[in-house]
Amino acid sequence: MGSCCGKPKQPPPHTNNTQTQMTPLANNQMQAKPPADSPFPPPAQPLPNNPMLPGAGGGATIFQALYDYDARISEDLSFKKSERLQIINTADGDWWYARSLVTNKEGYIPSTYVAPEKSYEAEDWYFGEVKRAEAEKRLMMKGLPTGTYLIRKAESAPGNFSLSVRDGDSVKHYRIRKLDTGGYFITSRAPFSSLHELVQHYSKDADGLVCALTIACPNDKPVTGGLAKDAWEIPRESLRLTRKLGAGQFGEVWAGVWNNTTQVAVKTLRQGTMSPSAFLTEAGIMKNLRHKHLVQLYAICSDKEPIYIVTEYMTCGSLLDYLARGDGANLQLPTLIDMSAQVAAGMAYLETQGYIHRDLAARNILVGENYVCKVADFGLARLIEDDEYTAHEGAKFPIKWTAPEAALYNTFTIKSDVWSFGILLTEIVTKGRIPYPGMSNAETIAQVERGYRMPMPPNCPEPLYQIMLQCWNKEAENRPTFEYLQATMEDYFVSAEPSYRDLNQ
């Protein structure tokens, strides 16, 4: 498959026969010092010694593939799950240059698809910093048998871990404590030198657990950082638009394929919607915003209008359509609350980055498999030059989702996004009902400014309505943070049973 980028294939910075010196440095990266006459720039920093890598020496260069990967461009390296790869260069944090120890071929690989060999991160059962609620959601996916399990970092005890196990229609959690000698135990009568040994033991015998461990919890492939190395401004010819997904006020959205290898979504911006130069500046910021609950911006086509925005493809479309007309119409409250928590998590990340969405609404949330929700179109509203939008009283401006200080005085902050989140909650609980039913935009802003707030929607629990009212506080500074909203939504349903099982009792 040829590269769509139109660049001749260039060798990466590495050496074939010349010995390089590896020095351990920080930041989980590697650096191999090239010879003085090397024509290549120096590679990135080496990975430091990892206590979870026996015999790693000066740095771990052998990694293990966590998933299958099919090359997207000719410079990529295809590999299979569990394949051993030698990492040669990490100068680009998203795309590393590697050699397969199975095929001996070289090429670029997505760095999120590999982990140091023999590390916990290389194990299917290790989920790292996954919260209890997220662990329960994953383990309770349809079709998983009793005994499906994962190990995660303990939220409240740094250095310890938690074992989460599916038991029929519930999930049990066990604290894994660390010994002073470096081993681990769930019960003091059965210590193990490593988590690997612990898993092997409880896979053979429940030995006090609710059941023996059967299979590791499935994990989705992560989104890659971009389509490929250096594939940011891409030629339009590399995109094939296959199916129109929808049309909005400012353009169309299409399902498409990039380079005949990768499924993507393409938003085409109607000519005159925004300044191409302003968009390029904003897109440069947007592409570096990375979170599992943000739609990943992959690439752009800005050489001429219409501008193309290329993003990851979400199979179930917008949350608004999903709830109103799709499979989401029959979802029950626990799933709706979980979806709300996911949106809050994405917005909490934007909050930490000092970034404002400006148009948070169900139409700008996209849904994937297993009810995964991601925030889309963040930041684009600021760039729109359409008079019907920028005049605020125009027909295209989303008055009913907008905080009064933003609608009246153009004061957009993360706190005005919090107001919009409260409106979004009404859309979710009513399965897509338009806010302030029966009221015009002019009536809405006038009434809200006088203190009117939407009454509690049908089928909305009182605690959820109280969260909405907090979001609609007249004083922006008194509205909650997204960090608070994320925690509140994630803990909305508190289990009455103990958080952890204790095998010592």
Automatic annotation (TrEMBL):
GO MF annotation, one: non-membrane spanning protein tyrosine kinase activity
Membership in a protein family: Belongs to the protein kinase superfamily. Tyr protein kinase family.
UniProt xrefs under SMART domains: SH2 (SM00252), SH3 (SM00326), TyrKc (SM00219)
Residue ranges of every copy of the SH3 domain listed in the record: 58-119
Lineage: Eukaryota, Metazoa, Cnidaria, Hydrozoa, Hydroidolina
Reaction equation(s) it catalyzes: L-tyrosyl-[protein] + ATP = O-phospho-L-tyrosyl-[protein] + ADP + H(+)
Sequence positions that bind ATP: K267
Key words, A-Z: ATP-binding, Kinase, Lipoprotein, Myristate, Nucleotide-binding, Phosphoprotein, SH2 domain, SH3 domain, Transferase, Tyrosine-protein kinase
Comp. bias regions, Pro residues: 36-51
Domain named SH2: residues: 125-217
Start and end residues of each Protein kinase domain: 239-493
Ranges annotated as biased composition (Polar residues): 15-31
Protein name in UniProt: Tyrosine-protein kinase
Superkingdom assignment: Eukaryota
Organism, scientific name: Clytia hemisphaerica
